[in-house]
Amino acid sequence: MSLPADLQLRAGQYLTDFGRVNTQHPHSWAFVDSPLVNARFLGPDGLRNPGARLSWLVPTPFYSELFLGVQNSEGETAASFRSDGHHHGDEAEEELPFAYRHADNDRGVESMADLLFTPRYALSFDLTDAQTLLLGTSAAFGPNSSGGSGDTATQIYGLDLYWKWKPVSHHGGFPFVSFQAEGMLRRYEAGAFDWADEDDPIVDEDTGLPAVLEDETLTDYGFYSQLLYGFRKGWVAGLRCDYVTGDQGDYEERNLSYEGGALGRDPLRNQRWRLSPNLTWYPSEYSKLRLQYNYDDRRDIGVDHSVWLQFEFLLGAHATHKF
Question: What is the β-pairing status of strands 193-194 and 115-126?
Fold first, then answer.
């Protein structure tokens, strides 16, 4: 942290600086679960891997910082990159792999082309004595192993916004109102794949033979927005809206079947939206009790209703939470 020219270096296994939620551990989340777009694009456990990150505090009259991370692109915590193909959020139990292509991740790190690069720029300034605004833009560039071709890549782009109102006369941080939103777009190069060598192949119903999938680039996008209201000391009401979808790929328009059942839209890329109100009580700085309801609508599957009760407590020293 004492490098010259306002530089800082961080190395090891760390959460990638992409947006806001990805840099937070689950105990810092304002909701029980991860936003849909984060889970689908960055993974249910967040995008994190061994590597290093260099940051520069830009000499501006307001907070302004540039980040550049370089990490290994392989493993289950590198969703959308060189993971195992079943990495896309809480739908990971689906039997078929993402884009209906098995991944091949055996080559390790052989060159710079096997690394994950993540630039980010964030700035923040006070709108008034009681209001603060933070804006950020992030990107992630790295290879994926779709189809085992070894030369396919993924690009993810993100924008994030955080606004908070807290009166000068606040008591212990309350009352407050905060609004947070993130939007992401992913371009995923899916490699060619031949199901002829698989034990239980996907079948092309037009030919009656194992399917042969061609190269294509898949585009997915989504967002979430959440509003929190700390209406009295220790009590916070929240509401979050999630949406994620993808443009229909060529492979989804094919007449394919698996184990006798017709395939259509990829469940790991299909449209999904969710509405989540919650209420959190903090008995102390080190504990919380949260009640949350999810209205979850997945295209071609239908609506799910779920109720979550979360209890958490912390022991020992812990770092200050990021703003």
Answer: unpaired
pLDDT tens digits, one per residue of 240-285: 999 999 999 999 999 999 999 999 999 999 999 999 999 999 999 8
Claim: this prediction has a pTM higher than 0.70: yes
In a domain? residue 323:
no
Give the β-pairing of 287-298 and 272-284: antiparallel
Number of domains into which the chain is organized: 1
**Is residue 298 within 8 Å of 304, Cβ to Cβ?**
yes
Q: Does the residue 159 lie in any domain?
A: yes
165 φ/ψ angles, rounded to the nearest 5 degrees: -115, 125
Domain with residue 113: its CATH number is 2.40.160
Q: pLDDT, tens digit, for every residue of 48-80?
A: 999 999 999 999 999 999 999 999 999 999 999
The residue whose two tokens read 């008995």 is 283
Asked, for residue 20, whether it belongs to a domain, the answer is: yes
Range of the domain at 241: 7-313
